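User: Could you go from structure to sequence for me? I need the amino acid at each position, not a summary. Structure tokens:
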């Protein structure tokens, strides 16, 4: 289990909010985080506390909220975090840079895009294109979505600067029509009030328990190959249920499945194709309408992933 805290850029009332949230995690298996938080009225900051015990997660799709601080306004929270950057590197790797300069590479297999080494890399256990046994030794935090020794799920909670990284365990195929419980993970990246989920090489649809553990997801990174992971119908179903403001497709193996995914989303999502592979996103800058965004228009013309 990874529970790490490093010197943070947070200070003052906002730091108190986060400290309270993190302290609530370990002993009670409850998660207080930006993904489950909302501001009901200024100046009260309300944080929803999600019970992750199996009985509670299986029995309810709602959360309850409690006021933990009353002198922090929504504007204070949003002003504390600036603009982040998300770059599509290729295959299932996105490079996320927080406003405070924390760099993450998802499904790291040795590639992390242009720029310095990431501070954090996450890995999926499906194929060698989604992980490496030999990560660069200069990477401080290597988070595997599975446990290498002994049974049970991986459990990561890492606070690094202005970012929190955590995982939601999922199962993985094993052998002929077999399934290994907790063999993989969805990774969630929380930056201020924006919550990003990377589905990884997901092999099954999600239960209510998974949705409860994920919470609100603003940016969804979704594989759209339609074969090696999920069928396109199942992936579209997950994306429509989460209703993220931004859906970033990945793992498409060419333009055909990517186009089919877009076509299946058009009835509920806008579609935006960008020439560049990098987008910048500020707090409060999410689109008003849920949108599928293609980073790199060339991906619609050939075998780019």
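Assistant: Here is the amino acid at each position, in order:
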């Amino acid at each position: 289990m990874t529970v790490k805290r490093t010197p943070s850029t947070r200070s003052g009332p906002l730091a108190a909010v986060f400290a309270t949230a993190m302290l609530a995690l370990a002993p009670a298996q409850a998660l207080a985080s930006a993904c489950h938080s909302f501001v009901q009225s200024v100046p009260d900051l309300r944080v929803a506390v999600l019970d992750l015990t199996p009985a509670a997660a299986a029995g309810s799709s709602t959360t309850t909220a409690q006021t933990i601080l009353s002198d922090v306004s929504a504007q204070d929270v949003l002003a504390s975090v600036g603009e982040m950057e998300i770059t599509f590197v290729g295959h299932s790797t996105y490079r996320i840079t927080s406003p405070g300069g924390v760099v993450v590479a998802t499904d790291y297999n040795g590639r992390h895009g242009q720029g310095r080494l990431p501070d954090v890399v996450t890995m999926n256990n499906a194929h060698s294109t989604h992980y490496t046994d030999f990560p660069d030794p200069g990477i401080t935090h290597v988070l595997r979505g599975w446990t290498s020794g002994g049974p049970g799920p991986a459990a990561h909670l890492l606070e690094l600067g202005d970012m929190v990284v955590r995982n939601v365990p999922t199962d993985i195929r094993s052998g002929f029509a077999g399934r290994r419980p907790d063999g993989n993970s969805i990774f969630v990246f929380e930056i201020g009030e924006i919550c990003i989920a990377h589905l990884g090489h997901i092999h099954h649809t999600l239960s209510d328990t998974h949705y409860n553990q994920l919470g609100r997801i603003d940016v969804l990174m979704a594989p759209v190959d339609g074969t090696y992971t999920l069928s396109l119908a199942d992936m579209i179903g997950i994306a429509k249920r989460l209703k993220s403001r931004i859906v970033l497709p990945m793992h498409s193996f060419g333009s055909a499945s990517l186009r089919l995914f877009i076509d299946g989303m058009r009835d509920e999502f806008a579609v935006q194709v960008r020439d560049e592979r990098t987008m910048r996103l500020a707090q409060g800058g999410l689109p008003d309408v849920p949108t599928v965004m293609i980073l790199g228009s060339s991906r619609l013309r050939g075998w780019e992933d």
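One structural detail worth keeping in mind: The chain has seven helices and 18 strands.
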